[in-house]
Amino acid sequence: MPSRKKRKRHRRRAEATATRPESQGGWGTGYPVTRRDLAMARRAIRENWPAPAAVRAAVIADICEVALTDDAPLRVQISAVRTVIDAEAVNQRADLAERAICGTRKVWPT
User: Fold this and answer.
1) Residues 15-39 pLDDT 10s
2) pTM of full prediction above 0.85
3) Which of 8, 24, 26, 27 has a CB 3.0–4.6 Å from the CB of 37, allowing a cystine?
4) 108 domain-assigned
């Protein structure tokens, strides 16, 4: 177990870091959403991370808001658009797979 001095130092650093705006992340109270947040959202969408439907809808709505606003930097807007495109691609693949299972039309592999 670390010494009392090290534990105290670690606790002070953790408390100081928790209150900094950089550690708050996006989607807490709207802006700022960073490119890192959007990259993680893209990864979650591509890898189909488990999330309730209401949360998914809220995140996509926030991403669309970032893409359409003039307040966000251009690079963040572009990243938001890429995230929306990736989400739509995942939805289309799921629809095609569902149609292939149901046999409603022939689906070519992509």
Assistant:
1) 766 566 554 455 555 557 889 999 9
2) no
3) 26
4) no
Residues in the chain: 110
Q: How many domains does the chain have?
A: 1
* Domain enclosing residue 52, as ranges: 28-102
41: in domain: yes
Residue 80's CB is within 10 A of a number of other CB atoms, namely 25
Quick check: 86 and 46 in contact, CB under 8 A? yes
CA R_g for the chain: 20
Chain-centre distance for alpha carbon 70: 20
Three-state secondary structure readout of 19-66? CCHHHCCCCCCCCCCCHHHHHHHHHHHHCCCCCCHHHHHHHHHHHHHH
Percent of the chain with pLDDT over 90: 35
- Reduced 3-state DSSP string for 84-100: HHHHHHHHHHHHHHHHH
107 within some domain: no
Q: Is the residue at 83 inside a domain?
A: yes
